[in-house]
Amino acid sequence: MPSTPAAGSLRPVRTDVHILETSAGAVELTVRDHDRARPFLLLHGGGGVASMAGFAGLLAERTHSRVLLPTHPGFGGTPKPAGLTGVAALAQAYVALLDRLDLTDVTVIGNSFGGWLAAEIALLNSPRVSGVVAVDAIGIEVEGHPQADIRGLSLPEIQRLSFHDPRKAPQPPPAATQDPRTQPPAPGPSPDVQALVGYAGPAMADPSLAERLAKVAIPVHVVWGESDRIVTPGYGKAFAAAIPMSTFTLLPRTGHLPQVESPEELLGALLDLGNR
Q1: DSSP H or E stretch at residue 214
Q2: What is the C-alpha to C-alpha distance for residues 273 and 269, in angstroms, rounded to an integer?
Q3: By the 8 A CB rule, do 51 and 109 touch?
Q4: Model pTM score
Q5: pLDDT per residue over 5-27, tens digit each?
Q6: What superfamily would CATH give domain 4-274?
Q7: Which alpha helices (DSSP H) does the chain contain, by range?
Q8: pLDDT one-digit tens code per residue, 233-268
């Protein structure tokens, strides 16, 4: 597909479609590629690729790195093979993508569901992946620190759980400006929510994950928003404690989506750890 210029940049941002053969069958991945040098793979959560897009551009500009931002199959109207079920299967597809692109020394950064996915990628022991950053990840079960159940909550209620300052939450366009052709034909879960549940299950957790994380053999930086009420900092500390080579960083005045609410602080945390 043709390249499109990034805002404020003379370097192009490409959108490529890759067809990958995996154990789940053929998987189509749509990937925004900020083509630089050092590679990063950014994995979005349930909010979709838009929740990572701004941070992808910031990371590429500030570090002059190559930043890959894929859309998980089934999100954003992309196709999802029937056989692609479970987070581990999706992780295998992303390792196949790194093989296809022949990338090495890749740092995988994932937020929320994407953090769980990044952990599953780490567990595959791909020689192409040198480190993982899990940002307010989900996926484990922590006694005394349950994930918030957002089913049935309104958007403002979810934003109050997700943001230190809900005024920083992206606002949907007014109903009058929405194209009815893009709206679901009937009430019910959005396609993105359906895709998320298809991977993560209704509980949004894997009871085996915390124990399996003990086998991660690469450095993992666990970053958490101090004001996250979807998965609290106590949950985040348990996530880090389950991983042998982990570092935990708590970001003040931010919630479940630091890359949206405080991208400069998140970038600073990543660069600070990399310079130690």
Answers
A1: none
A2: 6
A3: no
A4: 0.85
A5: 443 344 567 888 888 888 888 89
A6: Alpha/Beta hydrolase fold, catalytic domain (3.40.50.1820)
A7: 50-63, 87-101, 113-123, 155-162, 191-200, 209-212, 233-241, 258-261, 263-274
A8: 999 999 999 999 999 999 999 999 999 999 999 999
